[in-house]
Amino acid sequence: MPSPRTVTSGPELRSPRDPAELQTPARGARRASSGDAPSTHREDVRSSLGTLRRAFSRASQRAPGRAPEENRRSSRFPFRSPWRADQTQATAVPALAHGPDVPSRVEDGVSQPSSTGVGPEEPEAEAGKSVADLITERQLLAAFEQLRHLETQLVAEKASRTFEQDPTGFARRAMDVCLHYDGLAAEIGSIVRETLGPDGVDAAALAELAHVVRAEEEAHPAPPADSDFLLTPRRWRQHWEDAVRQSARERVQRAGAGAAPGVAEGSPGLAWLLAELGGLVRRDLQKVQLEVRPAYAAAGFPVWETYLRAFHGAVAQRLQELVHDARGCEDLYVLLDWAANVYGSPDFLGTPDLALPTEPLPPLLAPEVWARLESDYTSFLETKITSCFDGILQLEQSRWAASEASDVLQGRYHTPLSTDVHMLVAEHVKAAGAISADLEATTLRICARALGLFVPRFEKVFLESESVSEPHLGANINACEELRTSLLARFPGTFEELEKPLVAATCNFQKRLLQGLQRDVQPLFKVLCTKAWLTQDVLRPLMEKVVAFARHLEHVAPPWAQETLQEVHRYVVREYLVQALRPRERFRGVERLTGSQKMSLDAQAIGDTFQGLGSEATWLGQAILCVADILGETYKDDIRRHLETLIKSYPDIRRDHVLAILALRRLGRRRNQHLLQHAQDLLRAAAKAGGSGAAGGHVLFEEIEVPTSVDVLITCI
Fold this sequence. Notes:
Exocyst complex component 3-like protein 4, two-stranded antiparallel sheet, mainly alpha, 4 strands
């Protein structure tokens, strides 16, 4: 058995246990067994060096991926060997500085403790601190220089065949070096993960970290030619980048972990969560730019780009998770809006100098995910907008039920209908436009389609209600006109299909407005052209109702107010002529002359009244006057002239109307036939010239039905 040799140079291996643990019986038993080192040495010699090297290499490669809680411990010797943890028997390990044939060492009467079963042997610096202590105290550069020295020494001893008789001893010492390299890498990762924590940025530690990474790259520029796991590049720069990404992921995942105010615990609102996420990313990247980046400046690390991409990737991952959990139209829009307008804003980081670049970074959401998100949003939006229109209709119905009078705003009858629709469309279109032009166009089409279905529903429900009145009808006419003009002007090319239903609804409201007036004044026409009419002013009550009705038209949009007033004017003239051409009583002699004068006065009164109300239907002024002139004309040859004036002014007059007018006079068979033939010639000439019975769209006599009476038959005979 060879005697132990004393070596006076090189670092000393120490046990990775605290001094208190050395006093335990188990520890003492291990020290007592150190005398069996020669037999243990003979067993180790028979081990396979290749197997050990592969195991140590795998352990070295796995170390950077260990869980964060294992990376740093408060113990002086934080690193444990995974290979030794599997051993079932204690084995004496030679000191890192010993020769291959030295199993143990006794110094100052204290035997060297075994290093198996707990962790790697501790290389100690000449100043008295072990590498583990230096790593724990974060003296990274000193720890690396010590490890580099030990690694170089171990490579030299291998080259000099010092370990030829003890390959296992070499493997164990090499493993200890590798594990301490891994421990140093773990400490680098720990420093990176703590950089953005609440304790602030340790600029000195970051600067030393950068120098250590650079020093390692210079020390291990390329893998060794003999594929040895010593002198292998540790790739600490890649490890640093991985640690930055891991730190960003952890911080982004913790964003919004607390419950939002007013929100149930465990289910924070999505808007609040995204606000928290944005605030965290903003604060962290500002800290990186202002505090972290300068600490790495001397080493030339791409700090800003690395952290920027790390946080961008972490935010993209978190947003992808939130997309799967999004529910409803509001959540989907919040996600789209945050991604497009908050995170993508040049002011996201608080200053233009820190704006997120748009070109180098990948999309926050993949194009197919973004498209699916927009599609889901538009599906929800279509249902929501339809529901909003239902709500508008219910509000209008509640106003009708409460018998609320229509307001007069800027001189016009007003209903909230137009305002509500404008706000609904503008709100959703503006919100969609803030996301993308395609989404804005889709939202416009949804709004146009929903409004096109809403208008006929609204019209039907209103006209069937018991709240139909002149003010409400006028307010709805104004609302439809506002929607037609403003929406078409603001969104050309999209709302054009709405013009037809809006105009149709407006015409129906106008028709109902006229029907109300007609019901009121129709009985008053029955007393016209009677003997009582000759002596009484029966036209005044009728015209008073017309004037009262026209006051409502003053609060209706001008184009529809004028059109309605002209329609009332035409209605009054037409109904007057109906009574004149179908008289209940026949006038002869003085009564006929008196009737002619009375009819002329009525025609003048009707014309003056409607002119005063603003009617532009001046073409109606000759109809009643011509009939009155024919009725009262004393010089019968001039009747021909009055007929010519009547037919030229109203080309829609028919032969039946001429017969009814001539029947009022009883002119005789020959004269009647002559006048009737002349009238037919004029009608044929007018038909050839105009191509239709109504010139300029004016219709009057065409709507007057003249039944065949005995007097008309006599006139024809």
